[in-house]
């Protein structure tokens, strides 16, 4: 085998091993016969909101209100996401519709 094939094989093997370890870790660290630690429950409650906040900041970091189109596609897409999420309470629908809205605005309108 050439070096490229070995490299690809080892890369897939390492990724598979890391995925297996990460999937098994919760079962090994927190057995079913013991209660889940309070800090894990706290992280499970707080991290989704923190991650969403960081994603919003990351997505909007390059927007300049001083340069055309003045952040309008981003603002409209963000408003669509917020409206749909408050209305339907469906995260997948909100994100998909916001992405589609943004792409249509950027490609066809602005």
Distance between the termini: 51 Å
Q: Could you give the order of the helices and strands?
A: HHHH
Q: What integer value in Å does the Rg equal? A: 21 Å
The strand count comes to 0
Shape call: flat
Name the average pLDDT.
92
Q: How would you characterize the largest beta sheet?
A: none
What is the element layout, followed by pairings?
Layout: H1 3-29, H2 38-60, H3 72-88, H4 91-109
Helix pairs in contact: 3-4
Short précis:
The chain has 110 residues and is mostly helical.
Would you mind describing this structure in some detail?
The protein is built from four helices and no strands. It has 110 residues and is mainly α. It is flat and about 50 Å long.
List keywords for this structure.
mainly alpha; about 110 residues; 4 helices
């Amino acid at each position: 085998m050439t070096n490229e094939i070995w490299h690809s094989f080892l890369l897939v093997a390492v990724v598979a091993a890391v995925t297996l370890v990460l999937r098994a870790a919760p079962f090994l660290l927190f057995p079913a016969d013991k209660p889940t630690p309070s800090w894990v429950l706290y992280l499970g409650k707080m991290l989704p909101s923190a991650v969403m906040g960081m994603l919003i900041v990351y997505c909007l970091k390059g927007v300049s209100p001083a340069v055309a189109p003045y952040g309008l596609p981003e603002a409209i897409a963000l408003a669509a996401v917020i409206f749909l999420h408050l209305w339907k309470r469906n995260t997948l629908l909100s994100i998909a519709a916001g992405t589609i809205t943004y792409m249509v605005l950027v490609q066809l309108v602005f």
